[in-house]
Amino acid sequence: MKKLVLLMSVLASAYCSTSFADELADIKARGSLTCGVLGDLVPLGFQDPKTRSLVGFDVDVCAAVAKYLGVKLELKTVSVDARIPSLVTGRVDLMTASLAYTPVRAKQVDFSSAYISVPVSVLVKKDSGITSFANLAGKKISANRGSTSEVYARQKLKSSEIMSFDDGPSSYLALQQDKVQGMAMVKSAAVGFKNRSNGTTEFLSEPIFWEHDCIGVRKGEPALLAAVNTALDQLDSSGGMQTIWDRWYGPSTEYKLEREKKIVHASDF
Questions:
Q1: CB burial class (10 A; 0-12, 13-18, 19+) of residue 89?
Q2: Against a cut of 0.85, is the pTM above it?
Q3: Domains of the chain (ranges, CATH numbers)
């Protein structure tokens, strides 16, 4: 009897492992891909005020991956600190919510190649007299809770007090209200706040670090991870990724950011 129970346990474990490791097949079988995105960070993921639909850079990348897989796209909004839990628990199949690679996160989920590589910068008020990291000693810096900006700001700006906020608008409002003297955020997101400050803010020239935004995949899904990387490579080689970049960050937008780095493979992080 004990041998039978043990055998059934082993078979059940093997079945679960096989099922869990075949998420790509499951996605294709049901004909849909559920992607996690932010819902409040322009231009990465936000609600279009006219159509009320979710739009943004990360949304377009999700759509491109779904198209490559031949399935329809379903979107779910997540908060910054719920990104990893939402992926690990299966609430979403993939996570593109400005999810940057870190060694700590890589122990929890797998990362695709980076489709965005941009610096994390510190935004300050022009009249603050702050021109370098040295001037931030003893000052308060806002950052999104659970973000890589928060993690690396704590590591790089050890003499500053890092204050966590729920989202980008809250972090920026703290700067505007002088509750903090700087805001640490990935430049591709922070530039929107800078441009809307009517010339009252500026970036410090030194970046905290270069952030690699990737698509998060649950551990144990090599087929899905490989398919995502192939989709990103094809999107880049076809010019599709540059088109998405130009749509949200290019010369005709308020950001006017140059795409300094192309697709960066995980082995080069």
A1: exposed
A2: no
A3: 24-117+212-260 (3.40.190.10), 118-210 (3.40.190.10)
